[in-house]
UniProtKB/TrEMBL annotation, chains A, B, C:
UniProt organism field: Mangrovimicrobium sediminis
Complexes and interactors: Homotrimer.
Active-site residue list: H237
Single biological process term from Gene Ontology: lipid A biosynthetic process
GO molecular function terms listed in the Swiss-Prot or TrEMBL record: N-acyltransferase activity; UDP-3-O-[(3R)-3-hydroxyacyl]-glucosamine N-acyltransferase activity
Protein name stated in the entry: UDP-3-O-acylglucosamine N-acyltransferase
The organism's place on the tree of life at top rank: Bacteria
Length: 337, 337, 337
């Protein structure tokens, strides 16, 4: 429970309305009740503004006159909303200290303000920083380093020699530092290439549930500061991801792929190995990236969804395209003769 | 070990043969031995019926005359087979009670008939219903609710405020309630939008191994009764899945996607955010769904598999389609002049 | 720390240089320092050879003259490098014995030289072979068998009746033996088909992080000797994978799919159910395999990546291909008249 006046002051917003009005939650324009705060960040929801029953709306000053209830003004309502969510988050934070059912190697260094959950295992030589949280049943391998304020949710596995910087978040089921997929063909079959590198992750990196980031074969796999990674993303050995790049769910990067800064890869994108994407590249969903990209911009592949019966006919024609093209070239020639 | 007579009575089948004949297992028409029961659900396996060595075959009455061994008649042999599998399942069921190596918060309510496995952690305020099974090393977050008869296999993670109804099954490695992928661009990079909603799952829902269902940003992520979800499916924040919909492996749904009732999404389908699929939509494997669907029916995208050499030529022509189309239009004009 | 002389002898390489020269690590041609060993396996890196500062280079005899430092000769430098990596791997190996915080059923047989980590659970009737490692917080279901030298990294889950042969490696987050996705449509919705088969995995199989291999419905799901499987691969019930086949990350195989020997499936490939790929099939990344393949060779599907604006125009034309084709046929007819 807080008041509009407190929120305005704390988040640098301009209040138009009653500073004593109380808000107890955040909601959407449509669903907000009389104790909820909401926001308008996209002109296409303007109609919903007229009918909102919210306590107050965060919006751009230009829409204040139209707002039927109190409002908080800012040039970037979505950013203000993002920051406000922290206030209303009721997710429990584990208490500091090592749970008696955790298993911490005597040679590991754990800051007194860190939290190690029940069933967690911390191996030899690991260093856990201040305010860092290692959730229940996590595994922190030998010589790992977790910076201040980093949080591993329950069931995360770090193999040995994985470093995470400050204020990172790793969601449950993520596995960092498993072996890269390296094998040489031998006379009897595949022979394993032991993966000798580690994983190096910067500050303020978020890693989604079930995501896997493999260790490097010789050098490290590297994720720069501010990178955000969604669930079930696969990052192979020796990839390097640049600052503030965003990677959506189910993306797969093959080995030694380099992604620049401020890129976005939408859901289900696949990138072949040993290619490089420059800064500022945006790849749309499920695109197959088979070569390096040297110009910023948006890239795509695939075909549009259609009713299956119709799609089948077009798809058959796809496999005749080269032939069609030749028949067409023949016909053009005829015309010109 | 049971007899044909008992099976006929218990499952409402009509027996043609010896009620005292014993069966000890289930198998396919081809592999069944003289103590196995089998079934014929598809006319294309009729030839195999002639040679079967099974103890008995479940089949439609019209095929009884052709069956060389005893038979059990029903209009839906596949459904009868499905129900019979329960009899022959030797999967061990954990004993009721809280394992002494589980960690249960004193404020959690655990029914006396529930089973909490070794290493499982149950957080404050959670409620575990009758006959519910929480497998070894699972994590049940604060204020979660698990209805009667629901089973979490070992290593499932529920974050706080995740509700599951009755008779749900969640397979190992699944993560329910991790943060949705919500960030606002700020002056220094991405700023996290705390995910304030929960996850609400109905009755008789099955969730596959390694599947992730994120919590909602403001409202909840909602899965209706009777939904079945395969392995490694990714369901983003605020999705809503309608009753009895089936989602096969490796499907990815982006945020706020709404899927109707009785839909089927085949393996590897991807759906962009903020679209809605009406009831009765079927999407074929690996289709990229980029818009809402308002008519029931089957939908597809992609191109057919070909030998790589041939595919390469056609694929190049795909990227010249717009140009080809213009050249063609020019040629048509010429003809008409 | 070892010497070139020792390496030459141990790995059957011919040394050109100082047998007493010491090497302490492995690195790439470009990054290797004066105590590192490196290798040249691909002619395209010849330029880097000229400038290498490595202690020595493993290479084919024909390039020895060009090498500015000591060299070790072999016909297959990449294979020699692969074998050498084992020497330099600093990954810690857990000590033999059952950790006091593991939970092992009295009826399970655990070899004295095996290692069972903290928080691991080994169920009734399981058999764990010599030198086998069950990592922390793993779950080994009832009647599982793990052959000699097999290693489960922390957090792996095996359901009941899963067999692994000798010298297998299973990475964290993998789930073997979860229920296949089998349901029959019933009057009230989906009815579960209990999955009665198990999982049978041969020798020297590697299974990546987060990979799921479901148990069979009636018979077993079978993975042959020498198969290597990357991260987040989904193998459905009753699949059979032939010897030495390699499956890259994010591949999905639907139920009852049969893959031959010595195949390679690149990242993100999807294969529909009930099809069969013969030996020696190679499928390129993200291909959708919708039918059986009876000839060895390389297969592909999809469209090439383009700038989004350009792609959109071509994609629209894809959905008009059948129409274009008919218009073209009409025009051809006109010409011939």
């Amino acid at each position: 429970m807080t008041t509009l006046g407190e929120l305005a002051q704390r988040f640098g917003l301009t209040l138009s309305g009653d500073p004593a009005r109380q808000v107890s939650g955040l909601s959407t324009l449509v669903e907000a009740g009389p104790q909820d705060l909401t926001f308008l960040s996209n002109r296409k929801y303007l109609a919903a503004l007229d009918d909102t029953r919210a306590a107050a709306v965060i919006l751009q000053p230009e829409f204040a006159a139209r707002c039927p209830v109190d409002s908080l003004h800012t040039d970037d309502p979505y950013l203000a909303f993002a920051r406000l969510t922290a206030l209303f988050d009721r997710a429990p934070l584990p208490a500091a200290g090592i749970d008696p059912r955790a298993v911490v190697d005597p040679s590991a260094e754990v800051d007194a303000s860190a939290s190690i959950g029940a069933g967690a295992v911390v191996e030899a030589g690991a260093r856990i920083g201040p305010r860092t949280v290692v959730g229940a049943n996590c595994h922190v391998g030998a010589d790992c380093r977790l910076g201040p304020g980093t949080r591993l949710y329950p069931g995360v596995v770090l193999y040995h020699d994985v470093h995470l910087g400050e204020d990172c978040t790793v969601h449950s089921g993520a596995v960092l530092g498993a072996d890269g997929f390296g094998f040489a063909p031998g006379p009897q079959g595949w022979e394993k290439i032991h993966q000798l590198g580690g994983v190096r992750i910067g500050d303020r990196v978020e890693i989604g549930a079930g995501t896997t980031i493999d260790r490097g074969a010789l050098g490290h796999t590297v994720i720069a500061d501010g990178v955000i990674i969604d669930n079930q993303v696969m990052i192979a050995h020796n990839c390097r991801i640049g600052k503030n790049t965003a990677i959506a769910g189910c993306v797969g990067l093959a080995g030694s792929t380099i992604i620049g800064e401020n890129c976005t890869l939408a859901g289900g994108v696949g990138v072949v190995g040993h290619v490089e994407l420059c800064d500022g590249v945006h790849v749309t969903g499920m695109t197959m990236v088979t070569r390096s990209i040297t110009q910023p911009g948006s890239y795509s592949s695939g075909t549009p969804m259609e009713p299956t019966r119709q799609w089948r006919r077009n798809a058959v024609r796809f496999s005749q395209l080269e032939r069609l093209n030749q028949r067409f070239a023949d016909l053009e020639k005829t015309r010109h003769n």
